[in-house]
Design a protein that fits this description.
The complex is a heterodimer of chains A (about 170) and B (about 220).
Chain A: H1 6-24, E1 32-43, E2 48-51, E3 63-69, E4 73-81, E5 90-100, E6 105-110, E7 114-115, E8 120-121, E9 124-127, E10 130-132, E11 141-148, E12 151-163
Antiparallel strand pairs in A: 2-4, 3-12, 4-11, 5-10, 5-12, 6-9, 6-11, 7-8
Chain B: H1 2-28, H2 30-34, E1 56-61, E2 69-72, E3 77-86, E4 92-103, E5 118-125, E6 128-130, E7 135-137, E8 140-149, E9 157-164, E10 169-177, E11 184-186, E12 199-210
Antiparallel strand pairs in B: 1-3, 3-10, 4-9, 4-12, 5-8, 5-10, 6-7
Classes of the chains: A mainly beta (about 170), B mainly beta (about 220).
Protein backbone atom coordinates (compact mmCIF):
# COMPACT_ATOMS: atom_id res chain seq x y z
CA UNK A 1 0.00 0.00 0.00
CA UNK A 2 1.29 3.40 -0.96
CA UNK A 3 0.65 6.39 1.19
CA UNK A 4 1.08 9.86 -0.22
CA UNK A 5 1.51 12.62 2.27
CA UNK A 6 0.15 16.06 1.60
CA UNK A 7 3.57 17.72 1.05
CA UNK A 8 4.36 15.05 -1.51
CA UNK A 9 1.10 15.66 -3.30
CA UNK A 10 1.70 19.38 -3.26
CA UNK A 11 5.18 18.92 -4.68
CA UNK A 12 3.85 16.75 -7.46
CA UNK A 13 1.19 19.29 -8.40
CA UNK A 14 3.71 22.13 -8.39
CA UNK A 15 6.07 20.09 -10.49
CA UNK A 16 3.41 19.46 -13.12
CA UNK A 17 2.50 23.14 -13.21
CA UNK A 18 6.11 24.23 -13.55
CA UNK A 19 6.72 21.67 -16.30
CA UNK A 20 3.68 22.91 -18.17
CA UNK A 21 4.95 26.48 -17.93
CA UNK A 22 8.37 25.45 -19.14
CA UNK A 23 6.91 23.58 -22.10
CA UNK A 24 4.58 26.32 -23.19
CA UNK A 25 7.28 28.88 -22.61
CA UNK A 26 4.84 31.71 -22.66
CA UNK A 27 6.21 33.28 -19.56
CA UNK A 28 9.66 33.94 -21.02
CA UNK A 29 9.12 33.80 -24.77
CA UNK A 30 11.31 36.11 -26.81
CA UNK A 31 10.06 37.83 -29.91
CA UNK A 32 11.63 36.84 -33.18
CA UNK A 33 11.02 37.72 -36.81
CA UNK A 34 11.45 35.77 -40.05
CA UNK A 35 11.96 36.70 -43.67
CA UNK A 36 11.38 33.76 -46.00
CA UNK A 37 11.54 33.14 -49.74
CA UNK A 38 11.60 30.06 -51.96
CA UNK A 39 13.24 29.49 -55.32
CA UNK A 40 14.31 26.58 -57.48
CA UNK A 41 17.85 25.61 -58.41
CA UNK A 42 18.50 23.25 -61.30
CA UNK A 43 21.58 21.69 -62.83
CA UNK A 44 22.70 21.31 -66.40
CA UNK A 45 23.23 18.21 -68.55
CA UNK A 46 26.07 17.56 -70.95
CA UNK A 47 25.34 14.80 -73.42
CA UNK A 48 25.49 13.84 -77.07
CA UNK A 49 23.56 11.15 -78.85
CA UNK A 50 23.99 9.51 -82.22
CA UNK A 51 21.11 9.46 -84.68
CA UNK A 52 20.60 6.73 -87.28
CA UNK A 53 19.96 7.48 -90.93
CA UNK A 54 16.26 6.76 -90.36
CA UNK A 55 16.14 9.39 -87.63
CA UNK A 56 16.18 7.02 -84.66
CA UNK A 57 17.82 8.74 -81.72
CA UNK A 58 20.12 6.19 -80.12
CA UNK A 59 19.85 7.22 -76.50
CA UNK A 60 21.63 4.63 -74.39
CA UNK A 61 23.03 2.63 -77.26
CA UNK A 62 25.69 2.86 -79.91
CA UNK A 63 25.17 3.20 -83.61
CA UNK A 64 25.80 -0.38 -84.63
CA UNK A 65 25.42 -2.15 -87.94
CA UNK A 66 26.20 -5.69 -89.04
CA UNK A 67 26.75 -6.51 -92.66
CA UNK A 68 28.57 -8.56 -95.27
CA UNK A 69 29.91 -6.72 -98.28
CA UNK A 70 32.76 -7.02 -100.72
CA UNK A 71 32.91 -3.28 -101.18
CA UNK A 72 33.16 -0.27 -98.90
CA UNK A 73 29.83 1.22 -97.97
CA UNK A 74 28.72 4.35 -96.16
CA UNK A 75 25.95 5.19 -93.73
CA UNK A 76 24.89 8.77 -93.03
CA UNK A 77 23.57 9.80 -89.68
CA UNK A 78 24.32 12.53 -87.22
CA UNK A 79 25.38 13.38 -83.73
CA UNK A 80 23.19 15.68 -81.64
CA UNK A 81 23.82 17.71 -78.54
CA UNK A 82 21.04 16.44 -76.28
CA UNK A 83 22.26 18.24 -73.17
CA UNK A 84 21.74 21.76 -71.95
CA UNK A 85 25.32 22.98 -72.25
CA UNK A 86 27.21 23.82 -75.41
CA UNK A 87 29.85 21.23 -76.25
CA UNK A 88 33.39 21.87 -77.41
CA UNK A 89 34.27 18.25 -77.98
CA UNK A 90 33.13 14.66 -77.57
CA UNK A 91 34.90 11.31 -77.37
CA UNK A 92 34.10 8.73 -80.03
CA UNK A 93 34.75 5.02 -79.83
CA UNK A 94 34.62 2.94 -83.01
CA UNK A 95 34.73 -0.83 -82.75
CA UNK A 96 34.91 -3.38 -85.51
CA UNK A 97 34.36 -7.10 -85.38
CA UNK A 98 34.05 -9.91 -87.88
CA UNK A 99 36.41 -10.06 -90.80
CA UNK A 100 36.82 -6.57 -92.19
CA UNK A 101 39.05 -6.01 -95.17
CA UNK A 102 39.74 -2.45 -94.28
CA UNK A 103 39.35 0.14 -91.54
CA UNK A 104 36.08 1.56 -90.40
CA UNK A 105 35.85 5.31 -89.90
CA UNK A 106 33.49 8.02 -88.66
CA UNK A 107 33.68 11.48 -90.13
CA UNK A 108 31.64 14.55 -89.32
CA UNK A 109 30.83 17.28 -91.78
CA UNK A 110 31.04 20.63 -89.99
CA UNK A 111 29.22 23.64 -91.36
CA UNK A 112 27.70 21.51 -94.02
CA UNK A 113 26.22 18.08 -94.55
CA UNK A 114 27.08 14.81 -96.14
CA UNK A 115 25.51 14.28 -99.53
CA UNK A 116 24.67 10.63 -99.79
CA UNK A 117 24.27 10.74 -103.54
CA UNK A 118 27.76 12.00 -104.12
CA UNK A 119 29.41 10.97 -100.83
CA UNK A 120 30.70 14.48 -100.43
CA UNK A 121 30.78 16.92 -97.52
CA UNK A 122 29.59 20.44 -98.23
CA UNK A 123 31.51 21.75 -95.24
CA UNK A 124 34.63 20.73 -93.40
CA UNK A 125 35.41 17.13 -92.55
CA UNK A 126 36.36 16.22 -89.00
CA UNK A 127 37.50 12.72 -88.16
CA UNK A 128 35.67 11.34 -85.15
CA UNK A 129 38.14 9.21 -83.24
CA UNK A 130 38.86 9.50 -79.57
CA UNK A 131 38.49 13.00 -78.19
CA UNK A 132 37.32 15.06 -81.14
CA UNK A 133 36.90 18.79 -81.22
CA UNK A 134 33.44 19.08 -82.65
CA UNK A 135 31.55 22.13 -81.50
CA UNK A 136 27.87 21.55 -80.92
CA UNK A 137 25.47 24.17 -79.63
CA UNK A 138 22.62 23.06 -77.44
CA UNK A 139 20.17 21.09 -79.56
CA UNK A 140 22.27 21.24 -82.70
CA UNK A 141 23.50 18.34 -84.81
CA UNK A 142 26.41 17.52 -87.07
CA UNK A 143 26.19 15.23 -90.04
CA UNK A 144 28.21 12.02 -89.61
CA UNK A 145 29.35 9.48 -92.16
CA UNK A 146 30.13 5.95 -91.08
CA UNK A 147 32.53 4.15 -93.37
CA UNK A 148 31.96 0.39 -93.52
CA UNK A 149 34.86 -1.52 -95.01
CA UNK A 150 34.32 -4.66 -97.02
CA UNK A 151 33.78 -7.45 -94.55
CA UNK A 152 32.33 -10.85 -94.05
CA UNK A 153 29.99 -10.92 -91.09
CA UNK A 154 31.34 -7.58 -90.03
CA UNK A 155 29.96 -5.35 -87.30
CA UNK A 156 30.84 -1.69 -86.82
CA UNK A 157 29.67 0.23 -83.78
CA UNK A 158 30.14 3.91 -82.96
CA UNK A 159 29.47 5.38 -79.57
CA UNK A 160 29.89 8.86 -78.20
CA UNK A 161 30.62 10.08 -74.70
CA UNK A 162 30.90 13.54 -73.22
CA UNK A 163 33.04 14.41 -70.22
CA UNK A 164 32.39 17.44 -68.06
CA UNK A 165 35.55 19.03 -69.42
CA UNK A 166 34.15 18.90 -72.93
CA UNK A 167 31.20 21.11 -72.07
CA UNK A 168 31.34 24.82 -71.42
CA UNK A 169 33.56 25.73 -68.50
CA UNK A 170 32.22 27.01 -65.19
CA UNK B 1 -42.33 33.10 49.87
CA UNK B 2 -42.67 31.57 46.43
CA UNK B 3 -43.53 34.93 44.81
CA UNK B 4 -40.57 36.53 46.50
CA UNK B 5 -38.22 33.91 45.08
CA UNK B 6 -39.56 34.36 41.58
CA UNK B 7 -39.04 38.14 41.76
CA UNK B 8 -35.47 37.61 42.88
CA UNK B 9 -34.73 35.28 39.91
CA UNK B 10 -36.23 37.83 37.46
CA UNK B 11 -34.09 40.61 38.94
CA UNK B 12 -30.92 38.54 38.46
CA UNK B 13 -31.54 38.12 34.66
CA UNK B 14 -32.52 41.72 34.09
CA UNK B 15 -28.92 43.15 33.75
CA UNK B 16 -28.01 40.41 31.25
CA UNK B 17 -31.03 41.21 29.14
CA UNK B 18 -30.21 44.93 29.12
CA UNK B 19 -26.60 44.13 28.13
CA UNK B 20 -27.73 41.90 25.27
CA UNK B 21 -30.12 44.49 23.91
CA UNK B 22 -27.46 47.20 24.19
CA UNK B 23 -24.86 45.11 22.42
CA UNK B 24 -27.26 44.28 19.62
CA UNK B 25 -28.06 47.94 19.20
CA UNK B 26 -24.39 48.85 19.02
CA UNK B 27 -23.70 46.11 16.47
CA UNK B 28 -26.59 47.33 14.36
CA UNK B 29 -25.23 50.84 14.46
CA UNK B 30 -21.63 49.61 14.21
CA UNK B 31 -20.83 50.85 10.72
CA UNK B 32 -21.31 54.36 11.82
CA UNK B 33 -19.57 53.89 15.03
CA UNK B 34 -16.45 52.10 13.68
CA UNK B 35 -15.97 53.79 10.18
CA UNK B 36 -12.38 54.90 9.36
CA UNK B 37 -11.17 57.67 7.10
CA UNK B 38 -9.39 56.90 3.80
CA UNK B 39 -7.71 58.89 0.98
CA UNK B 40 -6.53 58.00 -2.59
CA UNK B 41 -4.08 59.54 -5.04
CA UNK B 42 -4.58 58.89 -8.79
CA UNK B 43 -2.54 60.05 -11.77
CA UNK B 44 -4.72 62.40 -13.73
CA UNK B 45 -3.13 61.34 -17.05
CA UNK B 46 -3.16 57.58 -17.58
CA UNK B 47 0.26 56.04 -18.09
CA UNK B 48 0.55 54.61 -21.57
CA UNK B 49 2.46 51.36 -22.04
CA UNK B 50 3.21 50.12 -25.53
CA UNK B 51 5.10 47.07 -26.65
CA UNK B 52 7.86 47.18 -29.22
CA UNK B 53 7.84 45.48 -32.59
CA UNK B 54 10.35 43.29 -34.36
CA UNK B 55 10.08 43.14 -38.13
CA UNK B 56 12.52 41.58 -40.53
CA UNK B 57 11.98 42.31 -44.18
CA UNK B 58 13.92 41.25 -47.25
CA UNK B 59 14.36 43.22 -50.45
CA UNK B 60 16.03 42.05 -53.61
CA UNK B 61 19.07 43.90 -54.81
CA UNK B 62 19.18 43.16 -58.52
CA UNK B 63 17.62 39.79 -59.27
CA UNK B 64 17.81 38.66 -55.68
CA UNK B 65 15.57 35.72 -55.01
CA UNK B 66 13.03 36.72 -57.63
CA UNK B 67 14.25 34.24 -60.24
CA UNK B 68 15.05 30.56 -60.16
CA UNK B 69 18.55 29.29 -60.78
CA UNK B 70 18.75 27.09 -63.85
CA UNK B 71 21.26 25.05 -65.80
CA UNK B 72 24.06 25.06 -63.26
CA UNK B 73 27.20 23.27 -64.35
CA UNK B 74 29.78 21.93 -61.91
CA UNK B 75 31.95 24.78 -60.72
CA UNK B 76 29.27 27.39 -61.38
CA UNK B 77 28.63 30.00 -58.73
CA UNK B 78 25.43 32.03 -58.74
CA UNK B 79 25.46 35.15 -56.59
CA UNK B 80 22.22 36.77 -55.50
CA UNK B 81 21.94 39.95 -53.45
CA UNK B 82 19.37 40.79 -50.80
CA UNK B 83 19.00 43.50 -48.19
CA UNK B 84 17.60 42.58 -44.79
CA UNK B 85 16.04 45.38 -42.78
CA UNK B 86 15.06 45.37 -39.14
CA UNK B 87 11.93 47.48 -39.57
CA UNK B 88 10.62 47.15 -36.04
CA UNK B 89 11.06 49.42 -33.08
CA UNK B 90 13.15 46.95 -31.15
CA UNK B 91 16.76 46.18 -31.76
CA UNK B 92 17.31 42.63 -32.89
CA UNK B 93 20.17 40.23 -32.56
CA UNK B 94 21.44 36.84 -33.61
CA UNK B 95 20.62 36.84 -37.31
CA UNK B 96 20.41 33.27 -38.59
CA UNK B 97 19.80 31.50 -41.87
CA UNK B 98 18.04 28.24 -42.52
CA UNK B 99 17.67 26.71 -45.97
CA UNK B 100 15.03 24.04 -46.36
CA UNK B 101 15.85 22.00 -49.46
CA UNK B 102 13.55 19.50 -51.12
CA UNK B 103 14.19 17.66 -54.35
CA UNK B 104 17.11 15.66 -55.69
CA UNK B 105 18.93 14.20 -52.67
CA UNK B 106 22.28 14.24 -54.41
CA UNK B 107 22.08 18.03 -54.55
CA UNK B 108 21.28 18.22 -50.85
CA UNK B 109 23.63 15.75 -49.20
CA UNK B 110 27.18 14.84 -50.13
CA UNK B 111 27.86 11.22 -50.90
CA UNK B 112 31.33 9.80 -51.26
CA UNK B 113 32.19 12.90 -53.23
CA UNK B 114 31.21 16.51 -52.78
CA UNK B 115 28.23 16.80 -55.06
CA UNK B 116 25.70 18.72 -53.04
CA UNK B 117 24.96 22.38 -53.67
CA UNK B 118 26.71 24.76 -51.33
CA UNK B 119 25.53 28.07 -49.95
CA UNK B 120 27.81 30.79 -48.67
CA UNK B 121 27.03 34.31 -47.53
CA UNK B 122 29.05 37.52 -47.61
CA UNK B 123 28.18 40.82 -45.97
CA UNK B 124 28.94 44.29 -47.29
CA UNK B 125 29.41 46.54 -44.28
CA UNK B 126 29.22 50.27 -44.75
CA UNK B 127 28.45 50.03 -48.45
CA UNK B 128 26.22 48.32 -50.97
CA UNK B 129 26.60 45.38 -53.25
CA UNK B 130 26.76 46.10 -56.93
CA UNK B 131 24.56 43.30 -58.20
CA UNK B 132 26.01 43.66 -61.68
CA UNK B 133 29.67 43.30 -60.77
CA UNK B 134 29.57 41.63 -57.38
CA UNK B 135 31.62 44.41 -55.86
CA UNK B 136 31.00 45.76 -52.37
CA UNK B 137 30.94 49.45 -53.21
CA UNK B 138 31.96 51.88 -50.51
CA UNK B 139 32.16 49.23 -47.86
CA UNK B 140 33.98 46.18 -46.68
CA UNK B 141 33.06 42.67 -47.72
CA UNK B 142 33.37 39.88 -45.22
CA UNK B 143 32.29 36.28 -45.02
CA UNK B 144 29.50 35.49 -42.61
CA UNK B 145 28.91 31.91 -43.72
CA UNK B 146 31.46 29.63 -45.33
CA UNK B 147 30.35 27.35 -48.15
CA UNK B 148 28.05 24.82 -46.52
CA UNK B 149 26.23 21.88 -48.14
CA UNK B 150 22.47 22.23 -48.14
CA UNK B 151 22.19 19.36 -45.68
CA UNK B 152 24.14 21.47 -43.21
CA UNK B 153 21.59 24.26 -43.43
CA UNK B 154 18.53 22.24 -42.55
CA UNK B 155 18.77 23.82 -39.13
CA UNK B 156 19.37 27.52 -38.60
CA UNK B 157 22.99 28.59 -38.58
CA UNK B 158 24.37 31.83 -37.24
CA UNK B 159 25.12 34.63 -39.67
CA UNK B 160 25.53 37.67 -37.46
CA UNK B 161 25.48 36.88 -33.75
CA UNK B 162 25.61 40.51 -32.64
CA UNK B 163 23.07 43.30 -32.49
CA UNK B 164 20.85 44.24 -35.41
CA UNK B 165 19.74 47.80 -34.73
CA UNK B 166 16.21 48.93 -35.29
CA UNK B 167 16.01 50.54 -38.71
CA UNK B 168 19.29 48.98 -39.74
CA UNK B 169 19.93 47.13 -42.99
CA UNK B 170 22.25 44.22 -43.58
CA UNK B 171 23.38 43.77 -47.15
CA UNK B 172 24.11 40.21 -48.14
CA UNK B 173 25.52 38.30 -51.08
CA UNK B 174 24.09 34.77 -51.09
CA UNK B 175 26.09 32.39 -53.25
CA UNK B 176 24.94 29.03 -54.53
CA UNK B 177 27.69 26.80 -55.86
CA UNK B 178 27.71 23.42 -57.54
CA UNK B 179 31.07 21.81 -56.72
CA UNK B 180 33.32 20.96 -59.61
CA UNK B 181 33.21 17.30 -60.51
CA UNK B 182 33.76 14.94 -63.42
CA UNK B 183 30.89 13.01 -64.89
CA UNK B 184 30.83 11.40 -68.28
CA UNK B 185 27.68 10.65 -70.21
CA UNK B 186 27.75 7.77 -72.68
CA UNK B 187 25.40 7.83 -75.64
CA UNK B 188 23.35 10.48 -73.95
CA UNK B 189 22.95 8.65 -70.64
CA UNK B 190 24.36 10.09 -67.44
CA UNK B 191 25.93 7.82 -64.82
CA UNK B 192 24.03 6.60 -61.78
CA UNK B 193 23.68 9.17 -59.04
CA UNK B 194 24.27 11.98 -61.48
CA UNK B 195 23.89 15.58 -60.52
CA UNK B 196 22.90 16.41 -64.10
CA UNK B 197 19.41 17.60 -64.84
CA UNK B 198 18.44 17.68 -61.17
CA UNK B 199 16.62 20.34 -59.21
CA UNK B 200 15.92 21.37 -55.66
CA UNK B 201 13.53 23.81 -54.10
CA UNK B 202 15.28 26.14 -51.70
CA UNK B 203 13.43 28.02 -48.99
CA UNK B 204 15.61 30.62 -47.32
CA UNK B 205 14.55 31.73 -43.87
CA UNK B 206 16.37 34.56 -42.19
CA UNK B 207 15.56 35.02 -38.53
CA UNK B 208 16.39 37.51 -35.83
CA UNK B 209 15.44 37.55 -32.18
CA UNK B 210 14.70 40.53 -30.00
CA UNK B 211 17.45 42.26 -28.07
CA UNK B 212 18.01 41.08 -24.54
CA UNK B 213 15.29 42.20 -22.14
CA UNK B 214 16.33 45.05 -19.85
CA UNK B 215 15.25 46.63 -16.57
CA UNK B 216 15.27 50.42 -16.54
CA UNK B 217 15.03 52.88 -13.65
CA UNK B 218 13.97 56.48 -14.10
Amino acid sequence: MTTTTFPARLSAVLGVVLAACALTGTAHADVDADATVTLQAGTARWAATLVRPDGTVLTGSSWSTSYTSITTNYLYGSVRNTGTLPLAAQTYTLTTSGFPLGAAAATACVNGAWQAATNTCTGTQVTLSGASALTLAVGSSASVRLTLPAAIGGTVALSVSVARSQARPA
Amino acid sequence: MTKHNADRRRSAWRPLAFAAVGTATLVAMGTGVWATLSATATNTTPEQVTSGTLKLTMANNGTGFSQNITNMAPGDVVNRYVDLTNGGTLDGQALTLQVAATGSPQLVTDGTTSKALRVSVMQCTGGTWNAGTGACTGGTASSVLAATPLSGLASAVSLLPGSFASGGTTRLQVSVQLPDQAETTVNGVAPAGTIQGQSVSLTYTFNETQRNATTTNS
